Amino acid sequence: MSNTGSKNSGAGKSKGRFQNLPNPDIKKPSRKTYVSFVMRMMKYSREIVDIPEGHIIPQDKAANDVKSRLEDGADFITWLGQASFLIRMNGRTFLTDPYLSSHASPSRIAGPKRFVEPGLRIEDLPKIDYLVLSHNHYDHLDSRTLKKLAGKTEMMAIVPLGLGRYMEKRGFHHVQEMDWWDSLQAGDVTLRALPSQHWSKRTLFDRNKSLWASFAFEGKNNKVFFTGDTGYGPLFKDIGEDFGPFDYTLVGIGAYEPREIMKAHHTNPEEAVQIGLDVKSRILVGMHWGTVRLTDEPLFEPPGRFLQAAKNAGYDAENTWVMSIGESRSL
Ligand code: ZN
Ligand code: ZN
Asked: For every residue of the chain, which 3-state class applies, written as one string?
């Protein structure tokens, strides 16, 4: 494991815990709001979810499409659900935040359970060159997926500061920790870790002890911005100024209610579109919805609001992507 370090050392740290960039719009939720939210989440575990037609495509079909696209050689992305994508650029395959197992929690008995299959079975994933993790929450860093992932001794695992040792312990031989503003060369793709507005936690005692990040993928033909999990903040205008414009922005459009709690950490569809405008993105791709219930909003509300907000902001329908789980599209 090595750490490139950063002169800017963008991620502020206090008493051993990472901090977000300043955002005057964020207020602390009341205890009452928080307790009632937790009570509702417990009830959701019994809900039966109706999956709309076309929300997920058959896994065999998805796997065949990925295979033929890899042979074809051109850049593409495949949505696997939540924030997990295959991103193929300049002959390299990146896998973001692979959550492909049943639960987004430490236990398979309790905790949020996915209500749709992943876009690809773990064993059908192609050879991965770079695993890119945005942070350590269970719907992004899924140890059950990592356990079954092939090629851990060959691929490079790229993680925010503080997650390197975790990955090494799980059998990854090439681990690169990144601070905000750090970059590395992945073949012809420049990969840049950038800020997001979020938090981290996997156990009772590790809150904000590892960093969270967004990532820019700058290839020869395409520039892709992957927000990871994030709330809306002034940082995106700065990213747009310094690193935009982008061709594609993969941005979270789900897990936003109740706002009093979620605004700090997850964008709603309207804020997601604002990020697209801020980073000067030509095409917006909605993610982090339709996979697992983490919050209050109706599960299939995000795409309609996202399409409308994008239209209001001047995006053509063809430049606002609501993908099916398992679907691949050319970049
Ligand atoms: Zn998260
Ligand atoms: Zn998440």
From this structure: CEECCCCCCCCCEECCEECCCCCCCCCCCCHHHHHHHHHHHHHHCCCCCCCCCCCECCHHHHHHHHHHHHHHCCCEEEEEECCEEEEEECCEEEEECCCCCCECCCCCCCCCEECCCCCCCHHHCCCCCEEECCCCCCCCCCHHHHHHCCCCCCCEEEEECCCHHHHHHCCCCEEEEECCCCEEEECCEEEEEECCCCCCCCCCCCCCCCCCCEEEEECCCCEEEECCCCCCCCHHHHHHHHHCCEEEEEEECCCCCCHHHHCCCCCCHHHHHHHHHHCCEEEEEEECCCCECCCCCCCCCHHHHHHHHHHHCCCCHHHEECCCECCEEEC
